[in-house]
Amino acid sequence: MGEPGFSAAAVLLLLLGCLSVGSVNAGDTLLSAPLNVTIRELEVNSAVVTWEILEGDPVIGFAITQQKKDVRMLRFIQEVNTTTRSCALWDLDEDTEYIVHVQSISMGGSSPPSEPVLFRTPKESEKLASKSPDEVTMEEVGQAAQLRAGELIIIVVVLIMWAGVIALFCRQYDIIKDNEPNNNKDKAKNSSECSTPEHPQGGLLRSNV
User: Fold this and answer.
1) What does the pLDDT look like over 100-155, one tens digit per residue?
2) What's the chain's Rg over C-alpha atoms?
3) d(Cα 70, Cα 98) in Å, to the nearest integer?
4) Whose CB among 9, 50, 97, 206 lies 3.0–4.6 Å from 86's, allowing a Cys bridge?
5) How many H helices and E strands in the chain?
6) Cα separations (Å) of 134 from 65, 130, 131, 138, 139?
7) HSE-CB for 131 with a 13 A CA cutoff
8) What are phi and psi of 98, to 5 degrees?
9) Partner residues linked to 39 by β-bridges
């Protein structure tokens, strides 16, 4: 009679041990829900959702649930083997409200969903109106930089040409200046020869007495 009682007690203890081990393992793999879920770079047809996780959580990926407000259809985005803390939402409808949840993924499963984040995409007209005339895009900045570089090259080439012209002028001026004394000497010599001409065939006429 003692053997069946002993066997039942042993089985009960074994079951309790398995349950306790299972609860400990579940506690070890439990993740916290992502924190500070934020919508950034909100455009007419796209947005970027960012979040943070608790330090020490063994996160290997994320899962995002995207849903239009008052519409049951969902979009589920999941990525694993990544440490990124952001995700792009694409193909959105303008002037539409969306609800987003984020979950962390580990080897043991997924965390609870984050607090829901509600946002609305802007209208195309509102987005165009919000862009001021003085706002410059990165593409426009690049084009302006290229134009400035081209202008600088043209200015440098023009300056070099002017420097060459000035150097040539100075050289010609020095040559002309160096030749001026010789020209003056030649002019003086020619003028003296004209004032006292030579008479090779005779001198002054004298009267015979």
Assistant:
1) 999 999 998 999 999 999 999 999 887 777 665 555 456 666 777 777 888 889 99
2) 49
3) 9
4) 50
5) 3, 8
6) 38, 11, 8, 13, 14
7) 10
8) -130, 155
9) 49
Cross-strand bridge partners of residue 76: 65
Residue pLDDT, tens place only, 163-199: 988 988 888 887 887 776 666 666 655 555 555 555 5
Residues 6+ apart with CB under 8 A from 80: 60, 61, 105
Tokens describing residue 110: 């997924």
Cα 114 to Cα 112: distance, rounded to the nearest angstrom: 7
CB 99 within 8 A of CB 75: no
Burial 170-199 (b: 16+ CB within 10 A, else e): eeeeeeeeeeeeeeeeeeeeeeeeeeeeee
